[in-house]
């Protein structure tokens, strides 16, 4: 019998030799959360990455409250600091039949329990521990005592012991049940914790009774009044949320990109700027709450490195969809695509900043019918320069420019800038000039960063690092500079935004606003010497805002961020790249004030004036527009009173008749279209028909109260 027992103990000793060292256990410890840090090491976000357990970071014994250390030793192993792994006095004091009773820890020391936590061979199964497991656990405990210090054993035990439900370790328990760090636990909380070690999932009343005993042993207290109520409250509390911090959406994105399993990740975010951005977004959205606005998002990029300095994906508590990341959500960008369009036209030599474009009613034939772009204020400005058209965000000139460039070529330019369109240019047609495609705020802001970097595109980076090499040139640097100069010109945008708008900044900055159709999305994107900032305001569910324009929605947040970024030193204007020339220009008929303008080589001219058309009064009277067979599609989102089809004719004394009834006189006439097929005639003073066309108007469901088209 002794031989068999000796062999068994020898085998147990061999297995026990496989126990890890203290350093190995501490190194292998993995919390159930990943910590996302700011670029300076500040904690930004804690994200749960292990759904099977709640376990905090390793806690040193010195960071555990003395009250808990005392309570645990008194409750579980009074002779802990004296024995060598097995409490032989406790063993000899108990009968052999009850020595290893699973219902009580009895002589099971903290060291023996730690051995069971380190090696599953010594853990109890469904029927409890076998005699062999108990013997092996005792041998393992003695080996642990020879290779580990006492404080290391107690520290490891506190970090590895299973507690209430899914909670493992003192860090997770203190955060979850008491909402504090382990070093802050008082005597009563320590007593409750020690009681949970004895019975992790016991009923609250049982835990409270055990805690009372521990409290009396550790402090000499004679009254446990209130302890049961405290225990019940603690066991019902869950203060340690799965994710907590100020950058939840960035953290989620960073974890997806990293995939290393690291317990902490350093991001490129600036903690102070992130907090400021959150506060500004929340404050402004509260001011807009009466206009049916509850969501917003913003991103700040470093121009040189592409590093993300701030990433706010939602308005948090103000939103009913706080988990939706507005930085990555696809939405219509409205007029914010116009800078890329004009840059392309300038680079191709189709336009200059001083070229004249007509802002007047126009009809553009599309497969679905005539496309009739409108301006935000429903007014047309006549002939304007490209500088005025872009800075004041006029829609009709942008559509005319897209016709020059072609939708397909413009779509390819946007793709090169990193704006991954779902379809080709032909799918969107001329509406692409007004932002009918869907893009993300992150991609749009990074595309603006290409404008800031002289047309060089580069990826966004979520981790800090050495400056990358310049990305490929996807835009002409000279055209990018001209567009930036236009978007930074307060006088050029005065026609739409006034001379003292919220877009004005203390230093140099170029900015463009945009609002998608039906006022669903509002944007402000722009750059300074060092930073590019993009802001989106709207509703995650797609509901329309009420009377929110580019300057009242996203622009105030953008301006506040720019002011914060340059609070110590104003932004300086960029230098003109080689190959640009500046020359004085005048405009015929005093269309605009004389000025000095930037030109690409070979495109400068001193005078920009309108060509005088030949007098057509002697020409044969005929209808110029609409053409015969035109299909006019009504927009149900635009109020009927604002929809007009312009009729044009040549000749003297044009008289119009629609479906046999007099309509009006003049070579140009605005007609309110109505669904159906119509016969349009041009007649003379006697009623004789000089010319006629047949058109069809589609769109019977016209809203009584319409919405606005894309806005600046």
From TrEMBL:
Matches recorded under InterPro entries: Beta-lactam/transpept-like, Glyco_trans_51, Glycosyltr_51/Transpeptidase, Lysozyme-like_dom_sf, PBP_1c, PBP_C, PBP_transglycosylase, PCN-bd_Tpept
Signal peptide (residue range): 1-18
EC number(s) given by UniProt: 2.4.99.28
Domain Glycosyl transferase family: 43-217
Domain Penicillin-binding C-terminal as annotated: residue spans: 614-695
Broad class of enzyme this protein falls into: transferase
Full protein name: peptidoglycan glycosyltransferase
């Amino acid at each position: 019998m002794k031989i068999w027992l000796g062999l068994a103990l020898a085998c147990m000793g061999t297995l026990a030799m496989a126990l890890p060292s203290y350093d190995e256990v501490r190194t292998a410890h993995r919390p159930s959360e990943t910590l996302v840090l700011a670029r300076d090491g500040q904690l930004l976000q804690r994200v749960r990455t292990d759904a099977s357990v709640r376990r905090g970071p390793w806690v040193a014994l010195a960071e555990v409250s003395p009250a808990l250390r005392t309570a645990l030793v008194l409750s579980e192993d009074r002779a802990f600091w004296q024995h060598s792994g097995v409490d032989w006095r406790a063993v000899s004091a108990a009968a052999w039949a009850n020595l290893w009773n699973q219902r009580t820890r009895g002589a099971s020391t903290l060291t023996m329990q730690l051995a069971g936590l380190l090696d599953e061979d010594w853990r109890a199964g469904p029927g409890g521990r076998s005699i062999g497991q108990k013997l092996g656990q005792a041998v393992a405990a003695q080996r642990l005592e020879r290779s580990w210090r006492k404080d290391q054993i107690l520290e490891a035990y506190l970090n590895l012991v299973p507690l209430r439900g899914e909670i493992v370790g003192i860090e997770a328990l203190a955060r979850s049940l008491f909402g504090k760090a382990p070093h802050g636990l008082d005597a009563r909380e320590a007593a409750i914790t020690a009681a949970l070690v004895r019975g992790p999932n016991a009923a609250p009343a049982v835990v409270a009774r055990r805690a009372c005993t521990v409290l009396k042993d550790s402090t000499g207290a004679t009254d446990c009044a209130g302890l049961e109520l405290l225990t019940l409250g603690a066991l019902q509390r869950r203060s340690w949320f799965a994710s907590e911090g100020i950058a939840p959406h960035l953290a989620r994105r960073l974890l997806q990109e990293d995939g290393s399993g690291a317990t902490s990740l350093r991001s490129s975010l600036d903690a102070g700027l992130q907090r400021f951005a959150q506060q500004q977004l929340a404050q402004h959205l509260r001011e807009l709450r009466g206009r049916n606005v509850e969501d917003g998002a913003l991103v700040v990029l470093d121009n040189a490195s592409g590093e993300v300095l701030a990433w706010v994906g939602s308005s948090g508590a103000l939103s009913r969809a706080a988990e939706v990341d507005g930085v990555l959500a696809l939405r219509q960008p409205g007029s914010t695509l116009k800078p890329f369009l004009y840059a392309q036209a300038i680079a191709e030599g189709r336009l200059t900043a001083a070229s004249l474009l007509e802002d007047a009613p126009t009809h553009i034939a599309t497969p679905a019918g005539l496309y009739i772009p409108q301006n935000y204020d429903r007014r047309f400005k006549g002939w304007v320069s490209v500088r005025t058209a872009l800075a004041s965000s006029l829609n009709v000139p942008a559509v005319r420019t897209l016709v020059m460039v072609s939708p397909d070529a413009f779509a390819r330019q946007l793709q090169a800038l990193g704006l991954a369109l779902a379809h080709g240019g032909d799918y969107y047609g001329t509406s692409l000039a007004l932002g009918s495609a869907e893009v993300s705020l992150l991609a749009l802001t990074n595309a603006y960063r290409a404008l800031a970097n002289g047309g060089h595109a580069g990826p966004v980076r979520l981790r800090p690092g050495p400056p990358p090499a310049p990305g490929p040139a996807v835009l002409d640097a000279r055209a990018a500079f001209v567009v930036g100069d236009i978007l930074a010109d307060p006088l050029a945008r005065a026609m739409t935004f006034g001379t003292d708008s919220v877009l004005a900044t203390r230093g140099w900055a170029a900015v463009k606003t945009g609002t998608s159709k039906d006022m669903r999305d509002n944007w402000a994107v722009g750059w300074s010497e060092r930073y590019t900032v993009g802001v989106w305001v709207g509703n995650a569910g797609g509901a329309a805002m009420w009377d929110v324009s580019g300057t009242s929605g996203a622009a105030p947040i953008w301006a506040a961020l720019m002011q914060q970024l340059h609070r110590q030193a104003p932004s300086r204007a960029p230098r003109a790249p080689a190959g640009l020339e500046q020359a004085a220009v005048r405009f015929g008929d005093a269309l605009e004030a004389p000025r000095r303008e930037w030109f690409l080589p070979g495109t400068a001219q001193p005078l920009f004036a309108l060509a005088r058309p030949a007098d057509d009064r002697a020409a044969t009277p005929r209808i110029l527009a609409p053409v015969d067979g035109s299909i006019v599609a009504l927009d149900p989102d635009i109020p009927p009173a604002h929809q007009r089809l312009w009729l044009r004719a040549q000749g003297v004394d044009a008289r119009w008749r629609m479906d046999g009834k007099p309509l009006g006189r003049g070579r140009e006439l605005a007609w309110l279209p109505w669904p159906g097929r119509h016969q349009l005639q041009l007649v003379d003073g006697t009623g004789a028909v000089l010319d006629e066309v047949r058109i069809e108007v589609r769109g019977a469901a016209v809203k009584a109260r319409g919405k606005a088209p894309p806005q600046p």
